[in-house]
Amino acid sequence: MKKRMITLFVATLVFLTTFSFPYATDQVQAASKTAKITASSLHIRENPKTTAKSLGLINKGKEVTISSQQSGWSKIKYGKLTGWVSSTYLDELGYVTASSLILRKSNNTSSQSLATLSKGTFVEIKSTKGNWLQVYVSSKKKTGWVSKTYISSSKPNATAKPATITTTKYYVTASSLYVRKSANTTSKKLATIKKGDAVTFMKKTGNWANVKTTSGVNGWASLTYLSTKKPTASTSAVKETTYYVTAGELYVRKSGNSKADKVTTLKKGEAVTLYEEKDKWGRIKTASGKTGWASLTYLSKTKPKETKPVATTPPKEEAPTKEEPIKVEPTKYYVISDSLNIRNGPSATHKVLGAVDRSDSVIVTEKQGDWGKVETQSGLVGWASLTYLSKTKPSDGFKGKVIVLDPGHGGTDPGASGKYNREKDLTLSTAKKLKAKLETAGAKVVMTRTGDTYPSLSKRVEISQANKPDVFISIHYNAGPSTANGIETFYLATNVNEKELAQTVQAEIIKETKLRDRGTKPGNFQVIRDNKQAAILLELGFISNLEEEKLIATSAYQDTAVTGIFNGLKKYFNLF
Fold this sequence. Notes:
Number of helices: 7
Helix content: 10-25%
Number of strands: 40
Radius of gyration: 30 Å
Largest sheet: 9 strands, antiparallel
Structural class: alpha+beta
C-alpha cells in the first residue's frame, strides 16, 4: 500500500512539472506604441475592467503610449498617469516606411489608388484585415487601405525641414483666424485676421504656415483655414423684418465691419428694418430713413423691455454730482462677447483704443457705473463695458463639435402611426429643426437621412462611425396604450458617458416641454449598442395618445423639444 502511495505521488509530481498552467489573463507585452483617443472622453482605470477605480479622464484626440494589451484593454501612459483603457476607443498611430506607398480604396493591389504617401507620412490605424491596414491620413483627409509591411509605430529619425511653397498669396476662409508666434495652438497670439483677408506665405511645417499679413505681422497660422481661392462673401437676402436694438448704443456703419465709417448711432429699443445678412452683420434702414450695416449680435425680433427711471426730486439749489471712479482690488475677468472695444473713457462715445476677443482676460482696477478700467494681456489700458465681462471663462460651446442626427424610420418603414401622423414624418421634421439650431451655434451636423428614405440600422451606425461624432442622437416618437404619455431617453451604460449625456438632455427637454418625465433607461437598441460614439435614443412623446399626438405634431412643440435637446447638449459639452 505504501509503495502504491509513493508511486501515485511521483506521477502527480511529474504531471505538475511537465504541464505549466498559464496566467489567468492573456496579457501581451508589446513594443511601445502610440495611439490616439477616439472617444469624447475616456476613463483611465487602475485595472483592466469597467468596475475598476478611475484614475482620471483623457479627452478625445490626445496621444497615449501603449505598453501592453489584454482582453480588449490597453495599458497606457499619459502624462503622469499609468493605467488601463478600453482598446475600442484607441486608434494606433504609425508612419510610412517605404519611399512611396499607395493608399487604396479597398484591401487588394488591384483596387483604385486614392493617393500616394511619401516616406514618414503620419497615419491613424482604424482596422486590420490580413496583411492590410485601414488608415486615415490627416494630411490627405482620406481613409483607405495600405500594406501592413510598410507601416511602423516608430517615428522617423530625421526631422523634416519646413517645406518652402511657391504660391505666396492665400486667403482666410474662417470668420476669423489667429496669427501666432509659433506653430501651435498654445502659442501667443500676434494678430487676428478676418475672412477674405490676404496673407503672404513664406514656408510651412506640418499643418501650419508661416505668413505675413498686410499690416506686416509675421507669424504662424493654421493651413486648415487658408486657401488659394478667395472666399465669396456669405451674403443672404432676407425677408424685410423689423428688429430692435438691444445694446445701450449701436453704431450703424457704411459697410459690414467694425472699422467702417459710422453713419449714425441707435439707442436701445429703436426699431430698424433688416434687408440683408452678411456673416454677423445686417444691412438695415432706420426709422429716420438712414441705411447702413449693424452687428446682428445686438438686434432682436423681440422689443426689449423699457426700464423706466424712478422719478426723484433733485435737492434744491444743488448741482447734480458726477459719479466718480471707484478703485477696486485688481480682479481677472474674461470677455464673453465675440469682441470688446477698449475705450479712453467710461462711455460708448469715447474713442476706441483697441479691442479684445472672446475668452481673453483683462484685469479690472476701477469701476464707474457699468464701466471698468481694465488692463489687457498686451498691456493696453482703457475702459470697457462690464456687461460683457465675467469672472467665469466662457465655453466654446458647439464650436468644433460633430453631431450625427438620426431621424428614426423612413421610407418603407413608417414607424408608429397615430390618428393623423406617421412617426417617420415627425422624426424628420424635428431633426431638421435641431440641425438648423446646432449649425447656427457652430456645430457640424450629419444626418443619417434627409428625406423619406430608409437607411438600414447598420448603415446608420456606419455613418456615425465614419464621421466620428462627439454625440449621436436617434430621434423617435413613442407608441403604447392610448393613455401612455411623456418623454424618455435610452442609453447603453457600456459606452462613453452615455448615461450622463442621457440624463442631461432628458432634464432639459422636460424643462422646456413640461411633459411627463419618464426618465432615462438602458436600451439595447442597435444604433446605440453598435455605436462606439456617445449615443442616445430619444422618445419625444406618444403618437398613440390622441391628445399628445395633436401636441407633438405642432411646429411649436417641436421647437421647444429642440430647444431642450440643444440646451442639454450645451450643458453636456461643458461637463466633459
